[in-house]
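This part of the workshop introduces the protein records we will be handling. The question running through the whole workshop is how a given chain folds. To make this concrete, we reproduce a full record directly below:
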Amino acid sequence: MHHRTVFVVEHDPKLRRSLQHLFAVESYRAEVYACGESFLRRRPPDHPACLLMDVAMPGCSGLEVQARLTKWLPPLPVIFMASQPSVPIAVQAMKNGAIDFIIKPARGREILAAVEQALVHSESAWTRLRQAEQLLARVGRLTVRERAVFELVAEGLPNKQAAAHLGITEKTVKVHRSRVMHKLEVGSLAELVRLATRLADITGPTRPLGGRAPGKGPPCPAGRQPREAACSAMPSFDRTNNLTACPSS
């Protein structure tokens, strides 16, 4: 069974222990932290996870932690807790993408329902990221010339026009096109176009290579891993935060 982790950031040690016990009973993997600074020093998880966090903590506030997490890939779903609810803070948290805002004291089933919703959200995000990695890995198999043919054909150019654009024969375009279909594991032009659309959704629109942008290669160059290519198309995150220890409560 794959990991599903609940991170808990709570300055009250008694509540931290209670939440850790609650999640252990429900078979969730839990990691607890006394403050945001301590949590942000860890590396982003490599599996579905979520964060249950007090919005008002000494030092780095819940909203500040949430802002830093937008750089993680995929972003970590956040559930806030608060003893003294503030409407402006709650509104800001939800605008920033929080899954839920729970008022203390809360029943266990309310917390578990919010956590399960957040983990489902995280699982969907991880599925999309892994699909993007797989797609970039397939496109990374193409040579520069094959990538040029791929982009021109996906734009709708017939083989003859693609050949004229690239300064090669129509027969050569057909050979490259066949290799492209094989490497990208598609069986029709319609599938090829759909794949090109998905690629644009991941990396953004690209200029076709056919003579208009010479020297450009596929998006996953030799020596780079698919995860690096997928992440390079999205906002990067800083794995080193240089944060201080938790403030004294």
In short: The beta strands are 5-9, 29-33, 49-54, 78-82, 100-103.
